[in-house]
Design goal:
Length: about 210
């Protein structure tokens, strides 16, 4: 008998904003800054293609307002990230295909946990037998981390594990560069997640299916 827990997979913001040459990230900061995310997307698409016909995936996408993450400044290259109708940012990343069992939720802030439909989807996944909520997508240090933390708070003391699959999660190249303390934003985020009891997993498909 297979004793592995059932996994609810959540994919955050797999949108062109973060991986496409015409998206806000590359247009503003250059292709090198997006390389870790582009590599993560390739691995993520492989896992999703395997899963598509057999299990549902919860997809969360973003629609923001101008200047939401630039302190209101509209002359910043990231002022219109994922602003509907402004650019191609809100479109799904190339190669991403939905399956008939999948659910799509739109959020309007970094943390998916602030969206009622997301909270409802997690509760439904638990009722359906999920004992592991695994998050992937974009970006590790921002939306994915924030969503993992709020998800962990939702399921605390119910025996439900929460994990971030790091190899299926995008990041900016600059997030891997240590600061004066010797820690990068990636390091600091890993520590914050671990402190909250969230597993940070380095394996890809094995992490989604075998935990």
């Amino acid at each position: 008998m297979d004793a592995r827990p059932q996994t609810a997979l959540v994919v955050i913001d797999a949108q062109r904003a973060f991986v496409d040459p015409a998206g806000s990230l590359i247009r503003t900061h250059g292709a090198q800054e997006a390389q870790p995310g582009i590599a993560a997307l390739e691995r993520l698409l492989t896992v999703l293609a395997t899963r598509r016909a057999t299990a549902p995936t919860i997809y969360v996408r973003s629609e923001y307002h101008p200047g939401q993450f630039t302190n209101g400044r509209l002359d910043d290259g990231m002022a219109y990230v994922c602003v509907p109708g402004r650019n191609i940012d809100c479109e799904w990343a190339e190669g991403l295909e939905m399956g008939p069992l999948d659910l799509v939720i739109t959020k309007h802030q970094a943390d998916a946990g602030g969206t009622a439909l997301y909270r409802d989807a997690i509760e439904q996944a638990i009722r359906d037998g999920a004992s592991l909520i695994a998050l992937a997508g974009f970006q590790f240090t921002t939306c994915v981390a924030a969503s993992a933390l709020s998800t962990a708070a939702m399921v605390r003391d119910r025996g439900i594990r929460v994990a971030v699959i790091e190899t299926l999660t995008g990041s900016r190249a600059s997030s891997h560069v240590p600061d004066a303390s010797g820690l990068s934003r990636m390091d600091s985020t890993r520590r914050r997640l671990a402190t909250a009891g969230i597993d940070v997993i380095g394996a890809a498909a094995e992490a989604v299916w075998a935990l």
